[in-house]
User: Fold these one by one.
Assistant:
Number 1:
Amino acid sequence: MAVTLYGIPNCDTVKKARTWLAEHGVEHQFHDFKKAGITPDMIAAWLQQVGWETLVNRKGTTWRGLDDARKAQIGDAASATALMLETPSVIKRPVLVTANTTQVGFTPDLYQQIFKK
C-alpha cells in the first residue's frame, strides 16, 4: 500500500504521526509541504475525500494571524484552496493519503483502524 504523509517536520502532531508509522512498521513517504510545495491537484484530490472545512485549520496560529477580512473570504472549496496554496501552513496536519483513504489529523486509534494488522 502506497502511503504518503503530508505536513511540516516541526509540527508536533506530524512528529507523533511519523513516530507511530515508524513504530508500527508502516512504510511511507513524507512530503514536507513547506519545502516541496503543494499543488492544486493535491488539494483537489484531498477535497474529494475530506471537506475544505476539515482541511483548513481554523484553530492554528496561521489562521489566527490572518486579518478578519481574509478569514471572511473563506466560504467554499475554491476560496479555501486559494488560501491553502497561498499559505500552506493553514492546512491542518498531518494529511495521510493511502490507496483507500485520505485522513486529516492524527490519533493513535485512527491510525490503528487504517493500518489494521
Number 2:
Amino acid sequence: MSDGVTGLSVPVLLGSVRRDRVGIRAARLIVAALTSRGHRPELVDPVVEQLPLLDRMYKEYPKGQAPAGLERLAELYRRADGFMIVSAEYNNGIPPALKNLLDHFLEEYFWRPSAIVCYSPGQFGGVRAAMQLRMTLAELGMSSIPSIFPIPRIVQVLDPEGRPLESWVESRLDRFIAEFCWYARAMKRERAGGTPY
C-alpha cells in the first residue's frame, strides 16, 4: 500500500552484532516495506561497517582524513530524509553496538525525524529500550516520531527474511510508515527553507 509519496532517502540503522541476532529480520521487514512504497532505504549494519569503539567522532577528523567507512556513512546521512532505528532490548536498555553506531555522528542527523522499531523474544517487544532510545535520538538532533513499532516474540512474528507471519504486522506497519513519512516530508520542506542554526 502506498502512502502517496515516493523517493524519501531512509538509512535503516540496525543495532545488533550478536552471532545469532534476530533483529536482522526486523531490518529486512522495514527495508522491504519502504522499498515497496517507492522510497530508498539503505541498511546500515554494524557487522558490515565494523566501526571501532568510539574514539573520534566523524567531525573530529581533519577534513578529508576520516576513514572511508565513516566518510561513506556521513555522505549517506547528509542526504537522508529521516532514519529508521532498529533496536533490541539488552538488560532494559539499548544494545552497545547501536549506541556506538549512533555516536560516531552528530550534525549529519540534525533536523531529520527518526522512527523506532524495537523487538524482543518476549511479549513487550523491546519497548523499555525504545524509551531510552528516544532520549538519545532527541539529543542527537533527530527526535523520534510519536509512534513506535514494537515486535514482540519476533521469531514467531517474522521469518528469517523479515516476512510477516502474523496478520497484524502489515496494518500496523502501514500506519507507522505513513506517520514517519509525514514527518520526513514536513521536515524536508522546512530544511529547504533553512534551519534555526
Number 3:
Amino acid sequence: MEQIVSIDKAKAVIDSGIDQAQEIIKNNEELNELVTKVQTTVKNTPVLGDAVADLPVMVSMVRSYAAKEYTVVSPKVIAALVSTFLYLVKRKDLIPDNIPILGHLDDIAIAAVALKLSEPELKAFREWQDAKKAEEA
C-alpha cells in the first residue's frame, strides 16, 4: 500500500482539502450530509470497512464536535478528518475505485494516515464516550 500511495502523498491529499473541510464544518447540514455519505461508503466497501475499523469512531467524533457535545478536540484534527471524508466520497481518487481491489487502496491509505494523525484524539474521544455511557447507566 505504501508503494501505491506514500504517507507523504496521503498527508498532501488530506492537507489539500483542509480549506474546503473548514468551510463544511461551518455548515451543519452540509457536514451531516458528508458524514452520512461516508457511513454509506464504509458500509458498501467491505475492503475499506475491514481495513479501517476506526473510521466509524472518526465519524462519531466529527458528529459530536459538530453538535458541540465534544469540543476538546483540536479544530485542525476535525478539519483533517473532514478532508479525509471528502476524499473518500467526493474527490477524484488517486486510483479509480472501479479497478478491483487496487481501486480502494488509495482510500485505505488516506484513511489510515488520518487515523494515525488523529490517534491520540480518538483515544480521548473513546474515553469520553465510555464515561458518558457510564454516567447515563
Number 4:
Amino acid sequence: MEFKTVVFYGSYRRDRQGIKAAKFIMNQLQKRNHHVIFADAKEYDFGILDRMYKEYEKGQAPEKMEELAEHIRTADGFVVVTGEYNHSIQPGLSNLMDHFLEEYFFRPAAIVSYSLGGFGGVRAAIQLRAFLTEMGMPTISSIFSISKIADALSDEGVAQQESLEKRVGQFLDELEWYEEALQRQRQEKGTPF
C-alpha cells in the first residue's frame, strides 16, 4: 500500500541536530513508498498560538496554515520527531501542532526522539505520547529513540550506526499496520464524530 505520512519537527535552534533524525526518517519512509510531507515548525512559523485553524472563517486562515491543514486532513499517519528540552518536548513542536485538532483524529502517530546524550530523548517521548493522544492520535507502542545524535547520523540523515537501520524497519512496520487499519476504518465506517 501507499501511505501519505506527515513528519513533524519542531526545533528552531541555529545548529539543529534533530534535523538529521527528520531526514533519516523521511528517507526511510520514502524507501517504503510513502508520500512524505515535512512539517517543519521553522518553515511553517505560525507564531505563538493566537487562533487555531478551526477558529478562522472558512477560507480566511493564512495560506500556509490552510496548506498544512489539508496535508494533515488527508494524511494516513504521522511521525513526530522530538528533541528533549528540560525533560519535555520542544516548544516549537507543541506550538506548531496546537494550531490544529480535529484534522488529526483517527490517524496514528509514531514518535522519534533524540538527544545529544545517552537517553535518546525518551523522557520527552513519554510526554509527547500523552500530548498526541489528547489530540486524537493513537500512538504506536514503539518509540524510535536516537542517542548521541551528533554521531549517530550524518548531516544528510544517513545512519552511522548499523543498529539504527536494523531497528527502523520494525518501527515502520508497526506504523504502517496502524495506518492501514485506521485508513480502512475511516473509509468503511467513517468516524464516530
